[in-house]
Amino acid sequence: MRRLVLAAFTAAVLSAPAPAADPKLSPADAEFKVVVDKAYEAMKAKQNADGSFAPKLGGPGVTALMAAAFLKAGKSPDDPVVVKCLAYLEASIQKDGGVYDKGLANYTTCLAVMTFKEANAGGKYDKVIANATKFLRGLQDATADPGELKFGGMGYDGKGRPDLSNTQFFVEALLASGATKDDPAVKKALAFVGRSQNLPGEFNDQPFAAKATDDDRGGFVYNPTDQTNAKSDKRTPEGGLRSEGGMTYAGLKSFLYAGLSKDDPRVKAAVAWIRRHYTVDENPGQGQAGLFYYYTTFAKAMTALGEDEFADAKGTKHPWRLELFTKLQSAQQPDGSWANANKSFLENQPELATAFAVLALGYCK
Fold first, then answer.
1. DSSP one-letter code for 19
2. Are strands 158-163 and 154-155 parallel, antiparallel or unpaired?
């Protein structure tokens, strides 16, 4: 996890019958319920007495992911597993408003904000969200020059070496808390997101972007500072940085969540890269590493893009919700959990992989 690794309707709408899901585009309700219920029972058996899940992997982070995942998949904030998760998260709130243990303050607080937002019936967590968001804003480096690579970016504990993963969680948390696309912190974060894209020009002046191959162009990288790290395995023979699937969906999601249009050149370039690399079989650029993280960012970005069928570069249309669901369904373990045979990013731990998997499933309906 440390390398990489969460409206009310009108009465008329509530009384109207729910439209039937198109079986060609998304999973049947009964199939969906079976998969989610199996995962729920598996995780219920693994939940610790204090409500946490795998706290040694990163404090309250996995617990926040788990609660957000089951809420997104249809569980109520009053569900016993979710209630215990929320109680643990509340107990993890620090005096400064952050939700963390001994580190990863930005990462885990962002996840907690998104989880509290999902569970915020009747404004129960308004104050918690406000305090946590204030804490997050304080982590963003206010001294960096706009011309610096790190400007607007976030690391695991805020200041220090930023990366796209932490920054995209920061953007999502701010917007979930009610920030607008014109919020200065959001704009600053998007500047770093832009500098993480293999797209030379107005929004990225970094040398690695100018050296991007045609195959990498438009995609996103995890850590743009790797361009000067001779030992990094992210560097390409041309001197650029390799684009990766999980990061490209994370970058695209950040742009769309923050209000950029589909006609924005950054969005168009990211979508073009995705069309060339569309798959649910691997994390492009990383293979099986970070696969379940990939599924989550894939699902969120595809939902934000708003295309029920996504056409790849060859023109083949993909019912992405159904394809993702089918892939996750086939990968589910007999006990209902998921685990990645690739140990990178600790996804071999079933609590982490399952939280990501169920969260991705929540976007398949």
1. P
2. antiparallel
Q: What is the dihedral of CA 63, 56, 248, 318, to 10 degrees?
A: -50
Residue 365 is assigned to a structural domain of this protein: no
Dihedral sign for Cα atoms in the order 171, 177, 349, 52: positive
Sequence-ordered strand ranges (E) for the chain: 154-155, 158-163, 310-311, 317-318
Give the residue from 189, 201, 138 showing the smallest Cα distance to 164: 189
Q: Amino acid identity of 362?
A: G
Structure confidence by residue, pLDDT tens digits, 57-74? 989 999 999 999 999 999
Query: Quick one: angle between helices 245-257 and 265-277, nearest 10?
Result: 150
Q: Model confidence over 245-262: pLDDT tens digits?
A: 999 999 999 999 999 999
Residue type, 266: R
Report the candidate in 340, 298, 329 with the shortest Cα–Cα distance to residue 36. Answer: 329
Q: Which residue range forms the structural domain that includes residue 98?
A: 38-282
The answer as to whether 267 is a domain residue is yes
One-letter amino acid for residue 265 of the chain: P
